[in-house]
Amino acid sequence: MSGELSLNINIKEPRWDQGTFMGRAKHFFKVTDPRTVLLSSDTLDEARVIVEDYRSGIAKPGLTEDELWRAKYIYDSAFHPDTGEKMFVIGRMSAQVPMNMSITGCMLTFYRTTPAVVFWQWVNQSFNAVVNYTNRSGDAPITVNQLAAAYISATTGAVVTALGFKSLATRLPPIASRFVPFAAVAAANCINIPFMRQRELKYGIPVMDENGNRLGESPNAAKQAIVQVVVSRIGMAVPAMAIPPVIMNALEKRAFMKRFPILNAPVQVGLVGLCLVFATPLCCALFPQKSSMSLSGLEADLQERIRQISPQTTTVYFNKGL
């Protein structure tokens, strides 16, 4: 590209149209790219400077549009969209594939004994607690007590569900027991995410007009955001926890797997990873990151305030979190 880079590129929004599933999928394939986890702090900080300078009307000399978008996606992968803080590395969406690949693979491999079920559900919920806190919506702090309550509730719910289904599965065909981890994960997501984001349910998340002007905080918007995130998270788990058990059930009957049982875990982890590479971005793309709801869906007092300060607003927007 010749000449100076235009300052009219809207990097506050994703590069692709977020009104379509395909546009959101392309966006999240970039955001969840596991290679960005390996980037150094210097590279992340450099991307932050490029993005923040560009938003202020300053383009680095020689910067191309492709380089700008690359910096924007590096920035998005590592910094919280509401607070601007650098996120804990294993809580970033770019760490979802390698982390979940390892944990889910082990949950699906070591499911036969009660201690193994308890241990891997605990590991999974510990990881989920970090992810849910890191990717919470809004800029409101969460207390240590709230974190502890969410963590204990989700872990207990996952373990109880897993052990309950494990007991039930003893009376069902052998393959049924392979789906115990999925049932536990689905139940835990329904507990963990609302608990981890309970402050949002109580006080609300920021809602904005189409130009990004903050209009107030809405618990109703928080409810919609959390439901969408729960559905997406369960959706992510479906391929990774439903497809490998079927394949492994068939493979374990083969002579070479009986001869080399040590291959069980790495094959399982590999299958899970293959599923997650596609399931993670595609399920993140089920709903727009910048979600919306009608003004009439907000609390009555907030509706009244918005009508006074912004009479033309009929739809509000908010970051749903991940």
UniProtKB/TrEMBL annotation:
Hydrolase keyword on record: no
Major localization class: mitochondrion
Catalytic activity: L-serine(in) = L-serine(out)
Keywords on record: Amino-acid transport, Membrane, Mitochondrion, Transmembrane, Transmembrane helix, Transport
Function: Mitochondrial serine transporter that mediates transport of serine into mitochondria, an important step of the one-carbon metabolism pathway. Mitochondrial serine is converted to glycine and formate, which then exits to the cytosol where it is used to generate the charged folates that serve as one-carbon donors.
Family (UniProt): Belongs to the sideroflexin family.
Name of this chain's protein: Sidoreflexin
